[in-house]
Amino acid sequence: MTDHKIVNHDEWTAAHNELLALEKEHTRRGDELARLRQELPWVRVDKDYMFQTGAGPRKLAELFDGRSQLVIYNFMFGPDYAAGCPVCSSIADSFNGVVEHLKARDVTMICVSRAPLEKLLAYRKRMGWNFNWASSYESDFNFDFGRSVSKETVASWFAEEPPTIPAQLAAECGTDAIGYMSEGPGLSVFTLSDGHVYMTYSTTARGLEPVMVYYGILDRVPRGRDEGEPADPTWMRRHDEFADAR
Questions:
Q1: Which of 185, 36, 58, 238 is nearest to 134 (CA)?
Q2: CA distance linking residue 150 with residue 182, whole number of Å
Q3: What are the tens digits of pLDDT across the range 129-174?
Q4: Phi-psi region of 203 (alpha: psi -120 to 50; beta: other; left: phi over 0)
């Protein structure tokens, strides 16, 4: 950082104004992308999925909780995990506090994972979250929407040992790399219209960055995300573990 260019205030203002023009262009492009997302065609969900929740068994349409729009974050917490994925946990920290604001705009946001409900609720209590969390343990939901695959499929991806980063994250979840990678994160959006459920949007990988609030902040500091190339997310920890890591 000490090798960074140092200028006077006028020079900084000129450089900042050039950047600001690009940021405004990016914002306008973001508005256009938002419009295109909202105009995507819908696909009807006809399968009768059932979930386990703290309020008892619920069908997909019941997860809307009286609203017309539903956002589901597929949180990586498989049946064999001892704890939720650290990266997904950091994401949950980001959206936990906005759930009530979303409700005010006719949006319910919840998490869905394949671990049994008891594990999910115990972990939620540990983390201090209050969003609703549903278990798809006895449902095909995760598999049908491409958020989970069989361990046999994962094993077929590797001729030898799985990559180091998934193996490290797996250890932090109390499972093996194959079991860890059989689950995947994702964001899916549904709407309820005339008694029918429709999927309207879906994303994963870098498409999840809007719900990873810390990235937007890190992108504005001198060292940025500071994760290396390719990016190494293993710096992420559950919020109650950072003190031990420093």
A1: 58
A2: 6
A3: 999 999 999 999 999 999 999 999 999 998 888 889 999 999 999 9
A4: beta
Give the E-state strand segments of 33-106 in sequence order.
43-44, 50-53, 56-59, 69-74
Task: Give me 120's structure tokens.
Answer: 């999910």
Task: Report the length, in residues, of the chain.
Answer: 246
pTM for the whole structure: 0.94
CA distance 147 to 8: 51
Cα distance between residue 70 and residue 42, in whole Å: 14
Q: How many CB atoms lie within 10 A of CB 105?
A: 8
- Please name every residue paired with 135 in a beta bridge, in sequence order, or none if there are none: 52, 113
Contacts of 204 (CB under 8 A, 6+ apart): 147, 184, 185, 186, 187
